[in-house]
Write a structure and sequence with these properties.
With about 170 residues, this protein is an alpha+beta fold. The protein contains five helices and six strands; from the N terminus they run E-E-H-H-E-E-H-H-E-E-H. The protein has a four-stranded antiparallel β-sheet with strand order 3-4-6-5. Strands 1-2 form a two-stranded antiparallel ribbon. Helix 2 packs antiparallel against helix 4. The longest helix is centred in the last third of the chain and has 22 residues.
Length: about 170
């Protein structure tokens, strides 16, 4: 879409009016708007991204391209709630815990964090595939950390050529 000058924007706090809600029983999750952009669609340099430093979101060594993709993933309040640790082959993914005050004042916050985590994991998986590897996810019994809750473990599976999917 961006090739045609169409931009998209995730409206994390948008909510449809009652008469516009889906009739199929599915719960509302997210609002996304799209349209012709009046301004440049793409950032011209990485410095234009307001993101945390790699050391703030990961301790994984030797996977800079993967971690950079996660670092550049968007998040609902630009807080990048994720932290990854382990190795390039297998990493535990954690989500920043919400404070009691934020949980009370902002009940939608937990759902937004889950969406944020999904966006980051999608960046991780797509980048792994671009690099010729497959990323597999599994939920394990891992303890949470002081300020972070364990979410999922991401591991490198077979290369894309071994699974029959080649990089385009």
């Amino acid at each position: 879409m961006s090739k045609e000058g169409i931009g998209t924007l995730w409206l994390g706090l948008g909510k449809p009016q009652e008469n516009l809600k889906a009739k199929d029983g599915l719960p509302y999750v997210i609002t996304s708007a799209c349209g012709k952009a009046k301004e440049e669609l793409h950032r011209n340099s990485l410095s234009e991204f307001k993101r945390k430093e790699l050391t703030e979101i990961t301790s994984v060594k030797g996977a800079k391209k993967l971690m950079e993709a996660v670092r550049l993933a968007s998040s609902s309040t630009k807080n990048q709630p994720w932290y990854l640790e382990g190795t390039e082959e297998e990493m535990a993914v954690y989500c920043k815990k919400m404070s009691v005050v934020k949980n009370t004042l902002f009940p939608l916050g937990k759902k937004l964090l889950q969406i944020d985590m999904g966006i980051a994991l999608c960046h991780l998986k797509v980048t792994a595939r671009y690099l010729g590897k497959e990323m597999e996810f599994k939920i394990e019994d891992k303890p949470s950390k002081k300020d972070y809750e364990y979410m999922i473990t991401a591991g490198m599976g077979q290369s894309a050529s071994e699974t029959g999917e080649e990089k385009n």
